[in-house]
Amino acid sequence: MSADTLSPAGTTTVAIDDVDITFASKRSRVQALTDVTLHVEPGEFVAIAGPSGCGKSTLLKAVAGLTTPSSGSVALRGERVTAPRQDIGYVFQRAALLEWRSVRGNITLQAEMRGMDMAVARRRADSLIEMTGLTGFEKALPHELSGGMQQRVSLCRALLHEPSVLLMDEPFGALDALTRERMNIELNRIWAETGTTVLLVTHSVAEAVYLASRVVVMSPRPGRIIEEHTVDLPRRRSYAETLETPEFHRISSRVRELLGAAGDND
After folding, report:
1. How far apart (Å, rounded) are the C-alpha atoms in residues 175 and 166?
2. Cβ–Cβ < 8 Å for 14, 165
3. Could you read off the pLDDT of 71-103 as tens digits, one per residue?
4. How many angstroms from the chain centroid is the CA of residue 20?
5. Which domain holds residue 128?
6. d(C-alpha 148, C-alpha 185), whole Å
7. Is residue 82 part of a domain?
8. Residues 143 and 14 in one domain
9. Most buried in the list 118, 148, 172, 225, measured by CB within 10 Å?
């Protein structure tokens, strides 16, 4: 069953409405986000681009229930987010694997923490291992894997419980350019096959436009959405061919223009 089938018919998967987030301490008060509204439909892949410090990661944490909005609301599948959610998957910039556990062991850790049926979890893990090209490395330890392979394990772990939403916070930022390109191709294939709803934070304009069905551009802090672009390209995309299309160049140029202007105002 694909993840987007978990959403009731006609229900927006992620609904972010008029969200403001301010962090206050005894010494300072920082407004991270202001007046952010974003609706993500089942099966969409939304990439969020913006300058450093604009609140992109904070927005993902609000969707996950790890940060509480100062005002406004966040809902998943029609249910308001008021605490950490169990029905999301989260992939961070670094894989954060347990060094003493194998590939399969790191993936099924998710099942152990959630109290899932382990027989079902192992079958699901084996399916994900095959899907991500990790077959033959099931017993390998993290130090025996390349950076890209470690991120594949992290992705498998996040997808193990078939989350309704996959949140990805600059997941390939620490990889070299060639490995990052390969991971982009892999992620596009997985999204096309599973239909999972994805929210991706990235600093790479090319990555955002290649992967997403919609690109959202944010302003410098306090972050707000300044423009959105629907990417009119097939769901399953050839990397080289996509980068040569007029649609890719049109959106990439506009996003770079916006981010350049944002940098001038930073």
Report:
1. 20
2. yes
3. 999 999 999 999 998 889 999 888 889 999 999
4. 21
5. 97-162
6. 12
7. yes
8. no
9. 172
